[in-house]
Amino acid sequence: MFSLALRDDALLSLRPLEIWHAEEFAAHMDRAREHIRPWVGPAFVTDDLEGARGTLRRYAERQAADGARLYGIWLDGTLVGGVMFVDFNVALGSCEVGCWLEPAAEGLGLITEACHTLLDWAFTTRGMHRAEWHCRADNDRSAAVAVRLGMTLEGVRREFWPFGDTRHDKQIWAVLAPEWQAHRKLAGME
Ligand SMILES: CC(C)(COP(=O)(O)OP(=O)(O)OC[C@H]1O[C@@H](n2cnc3c(N)ncnc32)[C@H](O)[C@@H]1OP(=O)(O)O)[C@@H](O)C(=O)NCCC(=O)NCCS
């Protein structure tokens, strides 16, 4: 469905992450688990093959209803992370994008580029009006992606996010369709 540009001769691809990838996804989760645990929803951090398959099944069922969707990012043939529509509400014209990476794939711009692809599809192909980005308020790398995507910080849900003994604030970022069209021009996408 999607493809990404080559990066320093590395083969990069963005493809739907589906149930038949369960073993690959579980192996990736072994590399990513402790890195992502503080920053993503607890249901996404699974411990074994059955857990990984459960995540993929949940997304498949929601995609079948034109809802949430999950995409993997493969770098030189290895699944290193992904991006998703956490929520995709056609009736409201609103969606939420999320992401994760294993540590070795950070700092390469993979997520910004993959999210560009998803947002372009949501706004241009699917006619969405609004896309959100939710992150823990102390997740600087995630907030930096929202900024690179031209999003605006709309507000903070105070002490919304329990993790360990602490309840963390959660930021809500968003970009609207006309803002996205302006952003993609600035980003040289047309
Ligand atoms: C959030 C997360 C996905 C961000 O990953 P990331 O690698 O920082 O984000 P990107 O893929 O957009 O890459 C940006 C980095 O690549 C660099 N980069 C290199 N080439 C680039 C390019 N062509 N375009 C953009 N950035 C590029 C940027 O300078 C930046 O590096 P820096 O932070 O050292 O300055 C990652 O930190 C992560 O998985 N964290 C744990 C899970 C998590 O927080 N998920 C999000 C929940 S809300």
From TrEMBL:
Any one GO molecular-function label of the UniProt entry: protein N-terminal-serine acetyltransferase activity
Protein origin, superkingdom: Bacteria
InterPro entries documented for this protein: Acyl_CoA_acyltransferase, GNAT_dom, Ribosomal_N-acetyltransferase
Keywords for this protein: Transferase
Keyword flag Membrane: no
Entry-linked Pfam families: Acetyltransf_3 (PF13302)
Keyword Transferase: yes
Protein name: N-acetyltransferase
